[in-house]
Model the fold of this input.
Amino acid sequence: GAGVSQSPSNKVTEKGKDVELRCDPISGHTALYWYRQSLGQGLEFLIYFQGNSAPDKSGLPSDRFSAERTGGSVSTLTIQRTQQEDSAVYLCASSTRQGASGNTIYFGEGSWLTVV
Amino acid sequence: GNSVTQMEGPVTLSEEAFLTINCTYTATGYPSLFWYVQYPGEGLQLLLKATKADDKGSNKGFEATYRKETTSFHLEKGSVQVSDSAVYFCALSGNTPLVFGKGTRLSVIA
Done:
């Protein structure tokens, strides 16, 4: 597609349930990122994938969070046993290559997660 | 590690006023610097960027100059419009994924 596509756009889930958020990056982009934007907070880096390299998971807040990227394209962010503090907008982004000078990262519109 | 500090908002201005949003950074090496904008109900969009010292990024009347000596990348616009109301994020990128500031909400009133 023309841009980064995320689904669902909105998700309400009960505390303790698992959720999966999907990201379809721009075709040809080898780098894919997940960020979290909480109310009143900035953007918190969660995880990024670069080609076939091992992902950088340094931003994941707990072991309840995981992500995978299949075939170097679509990515799924999974949150297990959701808690109310997980409520946030989860943003996916992609770029041609991490670290390239001036490399522009393109964001999707986000998945708004509400845990009740 | 890398970090970005930007002025806290919210900032409220009248139409045609001059805008400055301050941004300073801490980084190793020679990062690229960015301003992203998030309009109400929309996703993050790149506003402008600069990849080396003294570069000036510009777009839609906004400008920012990469100042290595002061480690700053302040955003400016000479005459804001109501349509500029949004949240603005300063960010840097080097050998790590984009690091963002906390964002500055701008409201422009007619």
Notes: The radius of gyration of chain B is 13 Å. Chain B touches chain A at residues 32, 34, 36, 42-46, 49-52, 89, 93-95, 97-103 (CB under 8 Å).
